[in-house]
Amino acid sequence: MGVFKLLLLLYLASGVNTYTPLPAPFTEECVVEKGKNLYDPANANQIKWYTVDLDAPPETHFKQIAQEYKQEIRDLIQVIKDLIVPVVPVALEIVDILFKDLMKWIPEPYNSEIVGVANVTGLPIGEVVLYNVFYEVFTVCTSIVAQQPNGRLIHARNLDFGLFLGWNPELHEWSISTVLRKMIVNINWIKDGKLLFKTNNFAGFVGAYNGLKPNKFTVTANERFMPAGGLYGMLRYVLGLDKESNWMTWHVRQVLEKADSYDEAKQLLSTQTIMSPVYYILGGAKPFEASIITRSINETDILTEMDPNDPQGWYLLQTNYDPGTEPIFIDDRDAPGNHCMGVLGQRGVSFKGIYNVLSSQTSLNKLTTYTVLMEVHSGQFETHLQKCPGYCWGW
Q1: Most buried residue among 12, 85, 277, 295 by CB atoms closer than 10 A?
Q2: What is the rounded average pLDDT for all residues in the chain?
Q3: Predicted local confidence at residue 98, as pLDDT
Q4: Within this chain, do residues 197 and 343 fall inside the same structural domain, yes or no?
């Protein structure tokens, strides 16, 4: 699609807030409705598992991952540089000075973990800080919590990353997304010699977007776009105006470490000050124990909970729009996703069923890097690489 056509669509979209199907060949498709199955549990084996021992010195937490993915981390930083430097030639000097200076108020253990990644990769600390902050502002996602007829919950999400960050005309995909697919890892977090929780991460990243605490809760985080949003919060943090704010992905990790129940996790996710607005999607260990916590920086604006009295109350689906708000038509993952969940039905809720919903366009798009599937009772946690080849919507 030419730049002019894309800009025209964006302009028209500003006044269109009702569902409008995308034009061919980008038309939405529900894999379930087509009778297809794209789920293969063996594909989850493509993502390696690592262990982070929280009792070990923090600077060693990501040492093995950083060693094995040193080149990929450096490649990603280079892609970021290639995008920024032509626009702001002095950007690297600013990053090296300004973001390195942030280390004086980045708390432990994240401070030492970032230093550890920098030491292993040989990258300047400022660039590793930038790499970690990056995930606070450029993520669009789809999360689902769905209840099986037996009352057990399946929690899943697509992570879409790299919006407007360099289009590769040869590969027909976003440059950042291409690199990130090579950097996805699973992590078992250990405390006192026992498994505490599970996450998946991009190598060298010390926060958490998704996590499972066995028999307790599951959580995913979707970015929320607001005028006082991630860039605003980041700027305040960089300028030292709000040094006490939690990075959104650090907060997820802290809750996985500290909370011992669904209710405790919900309370922590709902109340603590964070750097970026976010939707926290939370699932528990009991029937109908699921919620969407719509957060601004200082408070919870909306709490949406799974409703046993609603005929469609067996699932929650969250993209990057407030519940009850119509998305713009060029970024409508809600209507196709809800349609496909309706086709699937509650009896179809499983890793296979939810994976096929999330593998349906437009939930699957050119930004999608992976799908994660979680079940809190069994502790089953699968990460599947995702890619949308051919004619597929850009986000």
Answers
A1: 295
A2: 87
A3: 76
A4: yes
